[in-house]
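Ex. 9. Protein: Glycosyltransferase family 2 protein.
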Amino acid sequence: MEQEAPAGWEFFDSVDFPTDHTDDPMGRPRIRHVVTAVVVGHEGAAWLPRLSEALWALNPRPDRLIAVDTGSTDETAELLAAMPGVEPVVSVSARTGFGTAVARGIEAAGFAPIPSAVGPYGDDGHMPVVEWLWLLHDDCAPAPKALEKLLLEATMSPGTGVWGPKLRLWPRDRELLEVGVTTSLGGRRDTGIENGELDQGQHDQLRNVLAVSSAGMLVRRDVWEALHGFDPRLPMFRDDIDFGWRASRAGYKVGVAPDAVVYHAQAAATGERALAGTRRHAYQLDRSHAYYTVLANAPGKLLPLLILRFLLGTILRSVWFLLGKTPSGAVDEWTALLGTLPAGGWTQARRNRRSLDRVPYDDIKPLFSRSVHALRHNLEETTSTISERIREAWADEPEEQVVTTARRAKSTTRVAVDQPRWRRQLIRRPFLIAWVFLAIGAVVAARSLIGGGVLRSSLLLPPHETLGALWHAAAAAPPGVTPPAWLGQFWAFSTVMFGPSGAMNLLLLGAVPLAGLAAWALLRAFVVDRAARAWGASAYGLAVFTNGAITQGRIGTCVAAIVLPLLGAAVHTVARRRRVIIQGSWRAAWFAGICQAVLFAFTPALGLLVSVILVIGGALGLGWRRQGRQLVFSVVLGLLLVLPWTIELVLNPWRLGQEAGGPPTAAVGPGDSIPHLLTGTPIGAPTPWWLVVPLILVALLSLLRESRQRYELLGWFAALAGLAGTLVASRLGGGSGPLMFLMTAGWIVAVTVAWDSVGRSTEIIVQGVLGIVLVTSIVTAGFWLVRGADGPLWRGPAQDLPAYLISAQDPPQDASILVVRKDSGSPMRYSLVKDGGPRMGSLETAPTAEQSKPVTEVLSTLGGGGTGEEGRQLAGLAIDYVYLPAPVDPTLQATLDSLPGLTRASAAEGDAAWLVNRSEIDGSSPLTDVTHSVWRVLGLIAWLIALVFCLPTVRRTVAVPHGTHARRDR
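Predicted structure tokens for Glycosyltransferase family 2 protein:
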């Protein structure tokens, strides 16, 4: 009985309706097609009405329509029964896979009967008949011409046994989902379509493919029966690829009819329908079925390589998931692999499919996706994921609005539309211009430091030659001495910066632009005015130069200048993130802990001051809420990441005044210049102290305004904290350079926020004050470019020794050289040079007085005139040479000349050297090192864990065709 068409079946436009049937243009005999359609539904009440409308609009319609309901709990069964000409609905359990459901439906209703009456074209009933099975999902809707176009292509290409339509996005979108599908031997599904690609006819070529989606798949009955349908071991995921692969192996062609269009809703892929009938994760199930499909169908000679490839891919993807803080993804990877390989189901499938091998693998090899395509897709997805997660890293929770829309509009730079695009972009991005200037200026300012050799100064020891030597220095120290934590961090940075020397060049010579870029990342969080933000970031970068950190070679302050704004941005994220349920950001808290660990290592005094501020601010300002706990957690994490250096700082507080790379910065001690102290310019800085006075005056003037921003007050708080820390450090005789830099940074933040608050004021006084700020900045920048990086920092050889003494330190001689310095009126100083001489970190790992006592006693005896036994004593200490650099003390030189066992060696003019006779004495050096590898390995693991927790989370996606993700009811 003919059923009534449903209301709203005009869902399709007239362009979708079929035209009159045309003959085969090749003039081949007509064929009578008999089509049995099978619709499998599961919880599909939201989409079945549209499918019903689509079936009403079809012309021709299927000869038989079979509906199978897989345990639905909604109105799916009733909607299936209301379809045009449908057979009684077949009900199966919810755990029934798609292929099994189709087989059950055919068993219950059978294929459509072959007609014996007159055919539809006026023939006498003797027209050749071909039977077809048409598979439909409950969330798809074929266009009215879909079946006609599929049958027309089947008529024109009778040798093709499986046809698939072009899939578009539901309900009538032009976005392409699939036009045939293939796979790589690594198991990656490939549709050849980019995400969001629109259908413009670019894929409308008739061609053979490896497989087509089961949504709209048209299969000849003899092919279906010869292949025994879909593999029951694949209830979902990859069953269509497996079916197409088996069809190709058996000699049946698989084709795509791009004129036949089927719209697909992707119900499960979009999360509109949950995965039913399984407790396994969709990703895990997809990976498992991908392995099964490849192992069951690939040539036997490739199996060892494929298994190795699966293992390597699993390891790489597991590492990626762990780095992305998705350990369940790594578990799914290994569960899928280990649950497939030893299970043995694929081995039985291989035995059952041997009879299908009628076509050699080399003949169907072009149908597979090339491995290079899979690699390209993986790289694109990885890059896209990383960039997306970085963009979302600080935006995954709504921020409080800093300014109103009107103010933001007021601060937006307006540019005439007739300006060239590049000029408009530059005007709207003043910091880009400023940063390019800083980068070029860094090269110009470092003109005297470009060349051979290494960077050195009185405050900076030469860097190590290789990464191996740097790692050894980070893990080795005399007994009872802890190696500095910053050496391990510097080693990690050097691994990506072409070695220790390259890392040193970048941190010192590129400190100004790098610090400016970091400051811009902080200021953009609360400063709206782009000009103010550009000035603040540029002034902050130039403050590294005015502080003397570059010219003096103070790598600790340079690193702190880069890290401080990043720490501020992380703290801002923790303190400002607010949601109804979630407060703060643990990811930002982990990152803040990493930044504090760097400060503790490179500038302990500054790290201690910042940690105290954060603990007090977290406990008092934020209370013991989630944000306060996160700030305290970041401080504790920073202390843990630099163990055992934290213990060394507690046991020896005098080390707080040290900076990484050399001795403490020349401090402003009692009775020294008060202007240097108040302006934050250490003694020896390249700029005069009065150059900072205008900045301080403007910061003071900003306090006179009626309305002050809280970030402006925070800037002043940082400046006062730096001033207090400088006073304490200078009175204790420690290094105050990094603390002075914090003072200057606080003033810059205060002035930048004040500039941002006054905006584009037209008051003459305001414009005059801003003009003073700009003029001062320009003068400072000019001072930087003209003077450059001249000062204590210079580039030269790593050792100031004769060439033969430098080469003598290498194997096989491995000589030890005692370098003694004795100026008139000053005490004797010495250093034992071996293995390339004293390098970075040697100051922190200097031997204790007890260990150096044998050498000290010998030198004390020499200073008193000697006893004649010092030569044998030096040989017993495994010393090969004694070297006195200029100026040489005449008394000490005469004493050494008269000692037996010492022979005068060549030296530069003004210097003196002696060779120690060790032929009769096999001495041993008292200054031995102990390797602390366990601490360094544990520290490396801790850093990796911290980095993982501060990275964005990786999301898992199921690489299966659009619209068939996570489904049992396909």
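Check your answer against this statement. The first helix runs from residue 48 to 57.
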